[in-house]
Amino acid sequence: MGKLKKLVATACFITMTIGAVAPAEAALKEKDIVWIGSRVYNAGNSFKASEIDMEGIYWETVIYSSRDNSKMQLYFCKNGKRTGFVFEEVVPLAEGKFFFVSENMNTYEGYILDDEGNKVCTNLKDVADHIGIDSKGYHISNSGVERDRFICGETKDGLVILDTKNNCKVLKTHKGYVLGTNDEIYKKKVNNTRYILITNKKKTKRGFMSLSQKSGVSIIIANNLKLEADLLINNEGEYRIAVPQRYDSELNLYNTKGRLIWSGKNKTVKGVGGNILDTPGDPFAGILDPPKGVNKRYKENKIIFLVQSRNDKYGLVRDDGKQLLSYKYNEIREAYKDKAIVLDKKYLFYMVNYKGGKAASKKYNKIYGFYGGMSKVDNDDKYGVISETGRELIKPEYDEILRLKSDEMILKKGLDYIYRYKNGKDKVFAKQYENIEKLPNTQYQGRSLFLVTNNGKFGIMSAGGKELHKTKYDYFRVLDKQNGVFSLICRKNGKTGGYLSEIIVDKEGKKIFEINNTKSIERLASGEYMVMKGKSDHKDSGIDEVIIYSADWKKKLSIKNRWESILDYDDGLFIVRSKDDYYGVVDSTGKMVLPNKYSWVEFNLNLITVKQKYDGIEEIGFLVR
């Protein structure tokens, strides 16, 4: 199939940004389904061929492809217009308000369409939207360019900057340049600025352009470089140019004015770390080209290179060319502020500072890495804590360190769990638990909650050691990781047999709701909860009722189950499945909106996608809500 860019991750951002959809009460009519094509099956329901594939839904525009001619088509829901299967490439722009399309990626006949199919910009070969290649050689498709206001496109005259808020008006033309040979966007945004890979027209020399997403200002910051040159950017938007001399390992380092500030002749760069945009989690785990990810843990540093000399020893070099550590270490594992974690000949870990390479800590079997100014250390399978200066805060005499923060620690010694306050005082938990772990809670910054187990039962404890919910519950589940909503479930026996009683617990450990006979609870994208209820806890017992609760556990509506199962809910509509394995849609009163006749039904933003199978063919279509 042709090159389809940026369609994989887009559904996530649209879920967050989409406006109000048509109310569920609006009449949905089966006759309004738009059928876009079909799939053909062999015996046994395996695909013989997939003629039509749904590629993406962007607000009120649907993109789908045909393997018959390896081309894509756009359907504009606003007016029902179809383009035909003519495009090799489709790039959504401005959150689905525009689309760059190309019928032939080797010509300058590409153009931009608005969300009604009207041309607003022509004579383009490509737009800068592609970033990176992963370790398997696949293109990375989450640059986020579909949310950018200012876009860089390629024309015969050179590169143009387009303003999507002004109907893709051309703001500036950079003559003599084309987009990069592999990746158009070189890095993810930093300080609201894109860095775009460019080349000369012959594609023999490489350069870089910056494009501000605040002002639309675009600047050629480097050109006339080797094609292997890297732009190394830190999290403040400062950058250096790294140009390999040989095999992408020996490199020269240039400053922003093009002056050589470090020569790597006879030296091999084995990794890069520090305050760099696009760095692996372990700063020296990856080879320099290409660096990936943003490592916020090292924001205090400049960019740092791990360099191996001819004697196979390692040292550190900063991005301004300064030698931080000389070439005398067997291994260097981590750089932190003005220190590094190194290994001696016996592979023991210790810290050294950059001033003369003086030791800054004792030696340990392992130093794990710094979080919030502290690191766990291992000394013969006993654990302790050191500070970022190398001072031993806790002697390595504990069996495990379960939590390590400046204001609280959870230590384990023997069967005891010990909570250590900020003032250094200890509290040994009165009860010996089998296990204790911190509950996920992304936003809440108060005292933590801990899940504790004893004899296979679950409970919840405060960070201070108080047991908020006794260890008597049979099951535990996380309902909302971001805001900290959990549930504890207990098996009980009633007149009709066993059933489940479930309590909902908030981020402070308070019980906010209780419900019986739950089979499952699902948090929906809207923040609401869909609760499946059944009379028995037996695994084969069915769902009797489905209830929708608001985010604060106020009952909104319920529906009695008359089907084999109720699968999903969205804005007053439920997807249901019949006993003969067909799908349909009902409203909040249980009235059928789409009959149980489809092989698949799915809510997809403001559309309902459907599939209908017969005689070895499955048709694919959608219905606008």
TrEMBL record:
<keyword id="KW-0732">Signal</keyword>
<protein>
    <submittedName>
        <fullName>WG repeat-containing protein</fullName>
    </submittedName>
</protein>
<dbReference type="Pfam" id="PF14903">
    <property type="entry name" value="WG_beta_rep"/>
</dbReference>
<feature type="signal peptide">
    <location>
        <begin position="1"/>
        <end position="26"/>
    </location>
</feature>
<dbReference type="InterPro" id="IPR032774">
    <property type="entry name" value="WG_beta_rep"/>
</dbReference>
